[in-house]
Structure formats: C-alpha cells, structure tokens
Specification:
- This protein is an alpha+beta fold.
- The chain has a single domain, classed as Protein Transport Mog1p, Chain A (3-Layer(aba) Sandwich).
- It has 5 helices and 8 strands.
- Strands 1, 2, 3, 4, 5, 6, 7 and 8 form an 8-stranded antiparallel beta sheet that branches.
- The protein starts with a helix and ends with a helix.
Length: 171
C-alpha cells in the first residue's frame, strides 16, 4: 500500500511539473476584427507558469521573404500581430532565434500598455517555411520568460504542429 501511495505521489508531482512547464490551454474565440489575413486560433492558459495569459496564432501565407525568412527583430515587430492587442508596445530586449519543428525564425519580448492602463508582458514569435509565415503572440501579467517557455512548448505539441502545417498548406 505504501508503495502505491509513493508511486501516486511521484506521478502527481510529475504531472504538476509538466503543467508548470507547458501550462494548460483552453481554446477561446479569436478576439480580433477581420483583416487581410485568415483568422487564427486563440488560447488561454488556465494553469502553470502562464496562468491567465492568452496566445493568438495564425498563418500568413505568401508574406515572408522567401530567401531569408524572418531575419531580424524589425520584422518580428511588423508581422506578429502585437499591434492588434495594443498599439502601445515596446521591445524590452533583442530577440532570439527560435525553431518550431522545421520552421525557423525569431521571438521577441515586449511590454504592452493595455487600454485599461495595466501593463502586460508579451512575446511575439515569427517563424517561416519557404515563402509562408506563422506568427504567434502571447500576452499576460506573468513573467515574460516563463510565458515564452510555455508558449513555445505548447506550439511544439503534436496537435499544434499539425495545425500549423495544415494552416501553412492552406487547409
């Protein structure tokens, strides 16, 4: 009996560690008005290091520089849809190279001044495949590094990688 209890305790700790690393995500409605790009998918993190943060992701086919992909931070600033959340955003650091499966690009952290006067942290991710772009932006009150880790881990899940591939293929 004691061994079973120890095993269950260890299993629950592993689950807690995984939730902290990945977060738990619930799909929500796309909150932005229509524009020239297809609607994406939106998610709210309900537990873990990103609790309460929201992630918005979509494909932008035919938008990327076919030769260099996402080459610099200025491009991340322009393409990630961060301005849909708030037009008042400021980068807090130089971006970094990231990969989501075969997609390569950059991620950058920002401070957002929200319409209600509250400041949020935000992470913009832009990755490319040939001439197509996949963008994601996450915003919330959490610590930017923890939110970025949770967002990238979530985007690397099999479900999200399958959806990204289908969206970039126009399906």
């Amino acid at each position: 009996m004691l061994m079973v209890m120890l095993a269950l305790g260890a299993a629950s700790r592993v689950c807690a560690d995984e939730t902290e690393r990945v977060g738990q995500w619930q799909e929500i409605s796309w909150p932005f008005p229509r524009d020239g790009w297809p609607t994406g998918r939106a998610f709210r993190c309900t537990a873990g290091g990103c609790n309460g943060a929201e992630l918005y992701a979509r494909a932008k086919r035919g938008f990327c520089n076919c030769d260099t992909g996402v080459a610099d931070d200025d491009e991340v600033d322009r393409v990630t849809d961060i301005d849909l959340i708030s037009p008042r955003f400021a980068p807090v650091a130089t971006g970094e190279e990231v990969a989501l499966g075969e997609l390569r690009g950059r991620a950058r952290r920002y401070d957002l001044d929200m319409p209600d006067g509250v400041r949020h942290a935000s992470i913009g991710v832009a990755v490319a495949r040939r001439c197509d772009l996949f963008v994601a932006v996450m915003q919330g009150r959490g610590e930017a590094g923890a939110m970025q880790r949770a967002a990238l881990t979530f985007l690397e899940t099999q479900e999200m990688r399958g959806w990204m591939a289908a969206a970039l293929d126009g399906r």
